[in-house]
Write a structure and sequence with these properties.
The complex is a heterodimer. Chain A is built from no helices and 11 strands. Chain A is globular, with a radius of gyration of 13 Å. In chain B, strand 4 and strand 5 form a beta hairpin. Classes of the chains: A mainly beta, B mainly beta. At the A-B interface, strand 5 and strand 10 of A face strand 4, strand 5 and strand 9 of B.
Chain lengths: 115, 112
């Protein structure tokens, strides 16, 4: 069974630009969550999608948005990039949503560098 | 404020020794508590997941305990191996809003 895949793996963007990251969950998984990881802040929850609906959202500005498609694949978009957006963006998939205690499987991440 | 605090921040042990990592949380009520292992440059891998009614869960040489009364959890690693060198992250899911609250992690280094 293929694991969670994220594309691209590495990305370099300039301040002010926008970026779209993609996540393909494990087959059969309906929940996709996104996280930002930086050395200073650690892992921070961005949002969770379940059956194409945003189920939960972390404390990030509106520049961060996402969506989920009918095949459970998800995309995350960051507009008007800032230097502080440089981070490892992780995607995780699970059969169900968090409260149901389903195990989350993380992808390898997309390393975004903003210059 | 919902918080998850882990200690120690970093730890160095010799191969073959045991160690215990701590996680204290103020999240209440909570849905579940998870421990993850994250190797450098990789995504976290789930080690254990416990609901509020469970007080221990094992996964090979990893054993997690949970005391919901004192709001403490620990991860015990037995007979450490070099491959245990990683960051260990404690995560608590809130029951009210289903948000995940992450600890800052403990960086473990196992030396030969």
């Amino acid at each position: 069974k293929a694991g969670v895949t994220q594309t691209p793996r590495y990305l370099i963007k300039t301040r002010g630009q926008q970026v779209t990251l993609s996540c393909s969950p494990i087959s059969g998984h309906r929940s996709v969550s996104w996280y930002q990881q930086t050395p200073g802040q650690g892992l921070q929850f961005l949002f969770e999608y379940f059956s194409e609906t945003q189920r939960n959202k972390g404390n990030f500005p509106g520049r961060f948005s996402g969506r989920q498609f009918s095949n459970s694949r998800s995309e995350m978009n960051v507009s008007t990039l800032e230097l502080g957006d440089s981070a490892l963006y992780l995607c995780a998939s699970s059969l169900g949503a968090g409260q149901d205690s389903y195990e989350q499987y993380f992808g390898p991440g997309t390393r975004l560098t903003v210059t | 404020k919902n918080q998850v605090e882990q200690s120690p921040q970093s730890l160095i042990i010799l191969e073959g020794k045991n160690c215990t990592l701590q996680c204290n949380y103020t999240v209440s009520p909570f849905s579940n508590l998870r421990w993850y292992k994250q190797d450098t440059g990789r995504g976290p891998v789930s080690l254990t997941i416990m609901t509020f009614s469970e007080n221990t869960k094992s996964n090979g040489r990893y054993t997690a305990t949970l005391d919901a009364d004192t709001k403490q959890s620990s991860l015990h690693i037995t007979a450490s191996q070099l491959s245990d060198s990683a960051s260990y992250i404690c995560v608590v899911t809130t029951l009210s809003s289903y948000k995940l609250i992450f600890g800052s992690g403990t960086r473990l280094l196992v030396r030969p």
